[in-house]
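Structure tokens please, single chain.
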Amino acid sequence: MTGQQVPGLSGISKGVAGFAQAAANGQVSIDPDAVRGVLNKIRGAKDEVAALLRSAAGGVVRADGSFLGANQVGTAMSTKFARRGEGGEHSLHAVLQGYLDELAAAERAIETCTRNYQSRDTGSARRLGAVDTSVDL
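Here you go.
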């Protein structure tokens, strides 16, 4: 789904992409302790969306092909509703998959930011260790 426009997620996609790019360029660094809760929430949301996708994988159409009545209109509406739920460009499945992809991208970007922080922190500590801090009185 990455790279595709999912209805309702274009603003989120642009924000996550910009943040991920800034993180990849080393422009953003975040203390891992400060974002632990955010990462836990993102991972929890990913688990919930993945569970929704798994539960929807079984489909919503009954064995007789209809759940809104056995007449022609009921069968047609059942088919249309099932397509919106299970597949197709504007389906619930597509939106959930897009959301899951954006959550994963956000998680990767935050992890990159924490690695940037750790790298800068380690580099600063090395530089500080190289400075003579002794004081002659």
